[in-house]
What we know:
alpha+beta, Fructose-1,6-Bisphosphatase, Chain A, domain 1, 2 domains, 16 strands, globular, disordered N terminus
Amino acid sequence: MLAQVALHHDIEELSRVITDAGARTRLSRIFAAIAEEAGAAILAVYGHAAATAKADGSPVTEADLAAHRVILAGLARDCPGIPVVSEEDAAHRAPDPAETFILVDPLDGTREFISRNGEFTVNIALVEGGRPVVGVVLAPALGRLWAGAVGAGAWTKQVGEADWHRIGCRAPESEGVVAVASRSHRDEATEAFLAEQPVAGLRSVGSSLKFCLVAAGEADVYPRFGPTMEWDTAAGQAVLDAAGGQVVGPDGAPFRYGKSGWRNGPFIGWGARKG
């Protein structure tokens, strides 16, 4: 429970305490347990959940909504007093960039869920001062979980196992970088970026898994020029940042959160850079 990690309901005090690396690590474990609860709810309907269209035309399934309910209940139970914004909220309130809040995507990669390829995730992140500082990404169908706490490190484990294993970004090999790109949302700008890089390998992967592959040293760069929302990226960025990587805009500026409308611009997720 949140009281066990000495995090307080008062937001000013909360912000001060969560700057401590140990508290961030413990909060990542709380997020991980909640994500696993949501993953179980998703897998309970995996294989037969039908999709409908939201007002913006994007797909939503019974699994999205089931995971949303489980996560909100878990956060209310274990993290009371921290504002929560979920993709599946009926109405998204206006952001306050100075606020400490939790961003949730109950099921990232709904198209991958519908196609049954396993490349969908549960994302939970804590944002402080416009930056995600704690994040958890769970791939329920793959049985793998990643967690990051900026200032403390990043880890991965298999679902159902107790032991976490530390991960970190790698420096690219002399032959070039291994890039990861969206399986469902590739565009001309992404292709142009890749054409300018010394690409030695390219993997097409769905959802926020791309951040995790870079964080774990299994790839070197993740470019995304198509549209995303903040809840799509916050948890993955927290894992990548905690593993020694960085997420920046095409101009190299830090990638920030709490934007009007919650919509992201283009970004590039890098692992360890040479030089």
